[in-house]
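ARCHIVE CARD
CATEGORY: sequence design from structure
SOURCE FIELD: tokenized fold
FIELD CONTENT:
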């Protein structure tokens, strides 16, 4: 994949030199119009705009509208099925297997978590395996849907291969993130982490900015450590914690690709092949807290847990101990008020897309 993966043809024709701040409502409106122009149903276009812009609000800048040009190119070149349906191929009271029909992972993930939540309302828990999908982008969006409904949200997914198994040098595993979110009084607590040190998008960002990546992020194609992002793209990113991250990546592959009957390892294709389905798989679940204790009692106990952590002794030079999900919450509040920062390159892409589709630009 090249460094222009997330760029749209004609971007270079627009001169943008400063970061522009857009309201979430304006950005959602424009994003929805883009996808409707590309023949998605209004329901699916609304979901796409919701997931991408909410990801921007959450501060996951590499997973929101930053990738809008990629999704547009995949639709134009037919790699993503604009008219895919959410096809349930097997179902029990607590589980389901879904064929996403090579449609957008954002739509499949949104609907899968809604289905898991409905099952948890009825039975106490729900788990949905999705196959034949595309990238979910920000896993935390879906887990937060569950946490905000008073559930424990769980999201795992495989992805196109960028990481070799521990001891190897041929990429077989994707970033294969794990995300778990639990309800809280002030904000949900979230674990959202790739099983690799870095993802492909970060390598692209560093390459485009002509910067070296930190040491310990990646290997070149010969299996040697490298700080050159372009050499890293030819090789492999590393798992977090060596063999430990490898094991977490492996189990994300098992729950996502193997369990749901989907494809796995290097059977999953890059979304940079714009004219081909990626065959990505996901595992999405929701569990009722009140299957264990009343929700408010759980939140009270979480408050106690958080207090003990935040008021524990700090290391030298540390002003505050943060809880996973706290920073995301603060960014969300700030961006909801002051707008989402759109850097010049992303705005150039938005202007080029607007011109291609004959719609008004978002600014």
């Amino acid at each position: 994949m090249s460094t222009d993966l997330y760029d749209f043809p004609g971007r270079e024709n627009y001169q943008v030199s400063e970061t522009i701040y857009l309201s979430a409502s304006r950005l959602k409106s424009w994003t929805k119009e883009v996808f409707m122009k590309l023949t998605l149903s209004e329901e699916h276009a609304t979901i796409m705009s919701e997931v991408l812009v909410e990801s921007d609000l959450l501060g996951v800048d590499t997973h929101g509208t930053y990738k809008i040009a990629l999704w547009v190119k995949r639709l134009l070149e037919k790699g993503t099925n604009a008219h895919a349906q959410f096809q349930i191929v097997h179902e029990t009271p607590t589980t389901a297997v879904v064929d996403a029909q090579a449609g957008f992972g954002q739509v499949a993930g949104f609907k899968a978590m809604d289905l898991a939540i409905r099952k948890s309302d009825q039975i106490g828990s729900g788990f949905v395996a999705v196959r034949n999908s595309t990238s979910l982008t920000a896993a935390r969006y879906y887990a937060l849907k569950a946490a905000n409904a008073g559930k424990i949200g769980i999201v795992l997914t495989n992805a196109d291969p960028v990481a070799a198994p521990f001891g190897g040098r041929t990429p077989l595993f994707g970033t294969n993130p794990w995300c778990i979110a639990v309800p809280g009084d002030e904000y949900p607590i979230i674990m959202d982490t790739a099983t690799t040190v870095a993802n492909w998008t970060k390598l692209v960002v560093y390459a485009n900015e002509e910067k070296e990546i930190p040491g310990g992020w990646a290997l070149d194609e010969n299996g040697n450590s490298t700080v050159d992002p372009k050499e890293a793209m030819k090789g492999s990113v590393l798992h977090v914690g060596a063999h430990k991250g490898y094991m977490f990546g492996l189990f994300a592959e098992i729950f996502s690709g193997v369990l749901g009957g989907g494809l796995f390892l290097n059977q999953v294709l890059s979304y940079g092949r714009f004219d081909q389905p990626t065959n990505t798989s996901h595992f999405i679940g929701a569990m009722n807290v009140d299957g264990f204790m009343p929700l408010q009692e759980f939140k009270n106990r979480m408050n106690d847990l958080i207090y003990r952590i935040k008021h524990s002794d700090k290391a030298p030079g540390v002003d505050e101990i943060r809880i996973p999900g706290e920073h995301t919450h603060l960014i969300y509040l700030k961006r909801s008020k002051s707008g989402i920062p759109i850097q010049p390159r992303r705005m150039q892409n938005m202007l080029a897309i607007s011109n291609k589709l004959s719609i008004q630009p978002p600014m």
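CARD ANNOTATION: The chain has a mean pLDDT of 95. The two ends are 30 Å apart (CA to CA).
SHELF: design records, drawer C
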